[in-house]
Amino acid sequence: MELSESVQRGLRTLANASVFDGTSFQALVDVSFWSLLSRQGDPAVLDQPELKHIDQILVKRAHTAAATFILEAVKHNADSSTLSSCLEELSFSAERTEIINGIYQTHKKELDSLLASIGRCPPRVNDVSWRLQYHMKNGHVDKVNEPFYSISLSTENEGALEDIDFTCTVEQLQDLVGKLKDAAKSVEKASQM
Protein backbone atom coordinates (compact mmCIF):
# COMPACT_ATOMS: atom_id res chain seq x y z
CA MET A 1 0.00 0.00 0.00
CA GLU A 2 1.24 3.42 -0.89
CA LEU A 3 0.35 6.12 1.60
CA SER A 4 0.87 9.84 1.20
CA GLU A 5 3.44 11.62 3.32
CA SER A 6 0.77 13.34 5.42
CA VAL A 7 -0.93 10.00 6.18
CA GLN A 8 2.42 8.45 7.12
CA ARG A 9 3.15 11.44 9.40
CA GLY A 10 -0.24 11.08 11.08
CA LEU A 11 0.25 7.34 11.60
CA ARG A 12 3.73 7.88 13.06
CA THR A 13 2.18 10.33 15.51
CA LEU A 14 -0.41 7.69 16.44
CA ALA A 15 2.36 5.12 16.90
CA ASN A 16 4.25 7.43 19.27
CA ALA A 17 3.52 6.24 22.84
CA SER A 18 4.58 9.58 24.29
CA VAL A 19 1.76 11.33 22.38
CA PHE A 20 -0.92 8.61 22.49
CA ASP A 21 -0.75 6.44 25.58
CA GLY A 22 -2.50 3.06 25.62
CA THR A 23 -5.93 4.44 26.54
CA SER A 24 -5.92 7.33 24.09
CA PHE A 25 -4.53 5.07 21.34
CA GLN A 26 -7.36 2.56 21.83
CA ALA A 27 -9.93 5.39 21.90
CA LEU A 28 -8.66 6.92 18.67
CA VAL A 29 -8.52 3.58 16.84
CA ASP A 30 -12.05 2.72 18.01
CA VAL A 31 -13.36 6.11 16.91
CA SER A 32 -11.62 5.79 13.54
CA PHE A 33 -13.31 2.48 12.80
CA TRP A 34 -16.62 3.63 14.23
CA SER A 35 -16.62 6.82 12.15
CA LEU A 36 -16.28 4.74 8.99
CA LEU A 37 -18.90 2.18 9.94
CA SER A 38 -21.45 4.56 11.43
CA ARG A 39 -24.32 5.63 9.19
CA GLN A 40 -24.72 8.80 11.23
CA GLY A 41 -21.45 10.36 10.23
CA ASP A 42 -18.33 11.35 12.13
CA PRO A 43 -18.54 10.80 15.90
CA ALA A 44 -17.00 14.05 17.17
CA VAL A 45 -13.46 12.78 17.66
CA LEU A 46 -12.49 15.81 19.69
CA ASP A 47 -15.23 15.13 22.24
CA GLN A 48 -13.73 11.82 23.39
CA PRO A 49 -12.65 12.25 27.05
CA GLU A 50 -9.57 10.03 26.53
CA LEU A 51 -8.30 12.44 23.85
CA LYS A 52 -8.91 15.79 25.62
CA HIS A 53 -5.35 16.07 27.01
CA ILE A 54 -3.72 15.70 23.55
CA ASP A 55 -3.18 18.59 21.13
CA GLN A 56 -6.36 18.66 19.04
CA ILE A 57 -4.46 19.18 15.79
CA LEU A 58 -2.51 15.96 16.44
CA VAL A 59 -5.76 14.13 17.23
CA LYS A 60 -7.34 15.29 13.97
CA ARG A 61 -4.23 14.40 11.98
CA ALA A 62 -4.01 10.94 13.56
CA HIS A 63 -7.73 10.29 13.08
CA THR A 64 -7.61 11.26 9.42
CA ALA A 65 -4.50 9.15 8.87
CA ALA A 66 -6.01 6.13 10.65
CA ALA A 67 -9.27 6.34 8.67
CA THR A 68 -7.34 6.70 5.41
CA PHE A 69 -5.12 3.76 6.31
CA ILE A 70 -8.14 1.59 7.11
CA LEU A 71 -9.84 2.44 3.81
CA GLU A 72 -6.64 1.84 1.83
CA ALA A 73 -6.22 -1.54 3.52
CA VAL A 74 -9.77 -2.52 2.58
CA LYS A 75 -9.32 -1.17 -0.95
CA HIS A 76 -6.22 -3.33 -1.44
CA ASN A 77 -7.80 -6.31 0.37
CA ALA A 78 -4.83 -6.37 2.76
CA ASP A 79 -4.34 -9.46 4.86
CA SER A 80 -2.93 -9.61 8.41
CA SER A 81 0.70 -9.91 7.34
CA THR A 82 0.48 -6.99 4.90
CA LEU A 83 -1.19 -4.84 7.51
CA SER A 84 1.38 -5.79 10.15
CA SER A 85 4.39 -5.13 7.94
CA CYS A 86 3.00 -1.76 6.86
CA LEU A 87 2.35 -0.71 10.46
CA GLU A 88 5.78 -1.92 11.60
CA GLU A 89 7.40 0.23 8.90
CA LEU A 90 5.56 3.18 10.45
CA SER A 91 7.08 2.47 13.90
CA PHE A 92 4.04 0.79 15.49
CA SER A 93 4.80 -1.54 18.38
CA ALA A 94 3.74 -5.17 18.13
CA GLU A 95 0.97 -4.57 20.68
CA ARG A 96 -0.49 -1.59 18.77
CA THR A 97 -0.21 -3.45 15.49
CA GLU A 98 -2.12 -6.35 17.00
CA ILE A 99 -4.89 -4.02 18.24
CA ILE A 100 -5.41 -2.43 14.82
CA ASN A 101 -5.12 -5.78 13.05
CA GLY A 102 -7.70 -7.40 15.34
CA ILE A 103 -10.29 -4.65 14.89
CA TYR A 104 -9.61 -4.58 11.14
CA GLN A 105 -10.16 -8.33 10.79
CA THR A 106 -13.37 -8.09 12.85
CA HIS A 107 -14.86 -5.36 10.64
CA LYS A 108 -13.25 -6.20 7.29
CA LYS A 109 -16.46 -7.50 5.65
CA GLU A 110 -18.48 -4.50 6.80
CA LEU A 111 -15.82 -2.10 5.52
CA ASP A 112 -15.64 -3.97 2.23
CA SER A 113 -19.42 -3.63 1.83
CA LEU A 114 -19.14 0.05 2.67
CA LEU A 115 -16.58 0.66 -0.08
CA ALA A 116 -18.60 -1.39 -2.55
CA SER A 117 -21.68 0.73 -1.88
CA ILE A 118 -19.92 4.01 -2.59
CA GLY A 119 -20.44 5.41 -6.01
CA ARG A 120 -23.19 5.42 -8.51
CA CYS A 121 -24.18 2.89 -11.11
CA PRO A 122 -24.33 4.33 -14.59
CA PRO A 123 -27.88 4.87 -15.81
CA ARG A 124 -29.46 2.29 -18.10
CA VAL A 125 -30.68 3.59 -21.47
CA ASN A 126 -34.31 2.60 -22.04
CA ASP A 127 -35.10 4.52 -25.21
CA VAL A 128 -33.55 6.88 -27.74
CA SER A 129 -35.29 9.52 -29.79
CA TRP A 130 -33.67 11.79 -32.33
CA ARG A 131 -34.50 14.59 -34.72
CA LEU A 132 -32.55 15.95 -37.68
CA GLN A 133 -32.38 19.73 -37.73
CA TYR A 134 -30.70 22.21 -39.98
CA HIS A 135 -28.77 25.35 -39.00
CA MET A 136 -29.13 28.00 -41.64
CA LYS A 137 -27.49 30.90 -39.73
CA ASN A 138 -26.17 31.75 -36.31
CA GLY A 139 -25.29 34.95 -34.46
CA HIS A 140 -21.69 35.07 -35.71
CA VAL A 141 -21.91 34.03 -39.37
CA ASP A 142 -24.68 34.82 -41.83
CA LYS A 143 -24.86 31.38 -43.45
CA VAL A 144 -23.99 28.11 -41.73
CA ASN A 145 -26.06 25.54 -43.65
CA GLU A 146 -25.17 22.54 -41.49
CA PRO A 147 -27.32 19.62 -40.42
CA PHE A 148 -27.23 18.52 -36.78
CA TYR A 149 -29.03 15.97 -34.65
CA SER A 150 -30.97 16.53 -31.44
CA ILE A 151 -30.80 13.31 -29.43
CA SER A 152 -32.70 12.42 -26.27
CA LEU A 153 -31.79 9.37 -24.18
CA SER A 154 -34.44 8.12 -21.75
CA THR A 155 -32.49 6.59 -18.85
CA GLU A 156 -33.30 4.84 -15.60
CA ASN A 157 -31.08 4.79 -12.53
CA GLU A 158 -32.26 3.03 -9.39
CA GLY A 159 -35.89 3.55 -10.37
CA ALA A 160 -35.54 7.24 -11.21
CA LEU A 161 -36.25 8.21 -14.81
CA GLU A 162 -34.18 10.93 -16.42
CA ASP A 163 -33.79 12.31 -19.94
CA ILE A 164 -30.37 13.21 -21.25
CA ASP A 165 -30.54 15.63 -24.17
CA PHE A 166 -27.68 16.69 -26.44
CA THR A 167 -26.97 17.86 -29.98
CA CYS A 168 -24.22 16.78 -32.32
CA THR A 169 -23.06 17.15 -35.89
CA VAL A 170 -23.12 14.32 -38.40
CA GLU A 171 -19.41 13.61 -37.80
CA GLN A 172 -19.88 13.57 -34.03
CA LEU A 173 -22.84 11.20 -34.39
CA GLN A 174 -20.81 8.85 -36.61
CA ASP A 175 -18.01 8.90 -34.03
CA LEU A 176 -20.49 8.14 -31.22
CA VAL A 177 -22.03 5.23 -33.14
CA GLY A 178 -18.56 3.82 -33.85
CA LYS A 179 -17.58 4.02 -30.19
CA LEU A 180 -20.85 2.38 -29.11
CA LYS A 181 -20.25 -0.48 -31.56
CA ASP A 182 -16.70 -0.94 -30.20
CA ALA A 183 -18.03 -0.94 -26.63
CA ALA A 184 -20.70 -3.52 -27.53
CA LYS A 185 -18.04 -5.78 -29.08
CA SER A 186 -15.83 -5.43 -26.00
CA VAL A 187 -18.70 -6.35 -23.69
CA GLU A 188 -19.58 -9.32 -25.89
CA LYS A 189 -15.98 -10.59 -25.84
CA ALA A 190 -15.74 -10.11 -22.07
CA SER A 191 -18.95 -12.04 -21.49
CA GLN A 192 -17.64 -15.00 -23.53
CA MET A 193 -14.51 -15.39 -21.41
Automatic annotation (TrEMBL):
GO BP of this protein: sodium ion transport
Protein name: COMM domain-containing protein 3
Residue ranges constituting the COMM domain according to the UniProt record: 124-191
Regions crossing the membrane: none
Protein family membership: Belongs to the COMM domain-containing protein 3 family.
Source species of the chain: Mola mola
CDD domains: Commd3 (cd04751)
Listed InterPro entries: COMM (IPR017920), COMMD3 (IPR037355)
